[in-house]
Give the backbone structure.
Amino acid sequence: MKNRRDRGRTMPSVVHFDPQSQHVDVGDAAVEFETEPPVGNTIRSIKRLLGQKFVSKAVDVARIYASYSVVPTAQGNVVLQVVRGGKRVQVQPEEVVASVLAELKASAEAYFDGQLSIDNVVITVPAYFSDSQRKATLTSASMAGFKAVRLLNEPTAAAMAYGLFLSGKKLVTVFDFGGGTLDVSLLRIEDGKFEVLGIGGDTNLGGDDIDNVLVDHLIEMLDRHHNLTRAQVGDENMVRLKREVENAKIKLSEEEHAVVTVDMANVPRITYTLTRRKLEELCGPIRKK
């Protein structure tokens, strides 16, 4: 199914809150605003913060690498600070996820020319999602306008998508290394029925962590060769830098070298060549997990 705005089969889970109104952009339209002030109004990688307490590993990582502001509520929950309608307000992670789900809902309904209202949905979640994370997902779905919601573990959904339940008897391991989470499940499948024998994973391990490792490496290079600390780089430049390293990471899946261009207002343009060997070296601790 094609997305009505981004013209593709996938949509980035990125949300931008317009600082002067209540308008919200989602997907590629939101990505375009990532380097526009205020930088903290564009939210990505929100899945890790869903259903989390402020005192958590996910929040610790977000406060280092995310361009948006993460603050605690009086109850110790997580909220984001953004500017909407000219005022600084707090937004719950559930609201951000709801914006993504509402966009997908509208896209699906537009595919049917508005003649079909999609009120029921199955949403996949990491197998290791806690009860609070699952509850937050259901809350987001309700906020997005869905009436009946069922949650399905992502590895199980992947096995279904590959048709592994169609026939025969087999043991299947599903390895799902996503942007923010890692899921590994062992399934026993027989005549279209399945049994989950075991699950493992890490809700704080994914492609985002590879990006963060590369950002740390580039910051180290900037500090060593140009005397630029992370604080001097600033949030807006960090967004640009993270986008550059993500593109380099993707390129290195097929090529041996990738050039990272660091374009910042306060220093001349800097180029750095990243090799696949260096990427593998930097990601050694991630592989060991």
About this structure: The first strand starts at residue 15 and ends at 17. The longest helix spans residues 230-251. DSSP finds nine helices and 13 strands in the chain. The mean pLDDT is 89.
